Amino acid sequence: MPFTYFREDAEEAWQDLPVDIDVLITHGPINGVLDSGYGCHVLKDKVDRMADLKAHLFGHIHESTGLLKIEGTFFSNAAQSVHLIALD
Asked: Residue ranges per domain, the chain?
């Protein structure tokens, strides 16, 4: 998986990412989750298809650190300190 890429290269960057995984670790977040508006739309589409995903761990966006649980999946932006917010 890529560490960094240009937005116009996102489709190619994530094309081989399997959707049958339990834990995903990436440099940056998906769009809309602990991302301050900088998350990846293409990665979000992939994650939305991951029925068995238990956790997505990432960093990069220091202004949006924290831990969210959304529909059974934990999203952790560990760029700095972590705060728990449950959305069940």
From this structure: 22-86
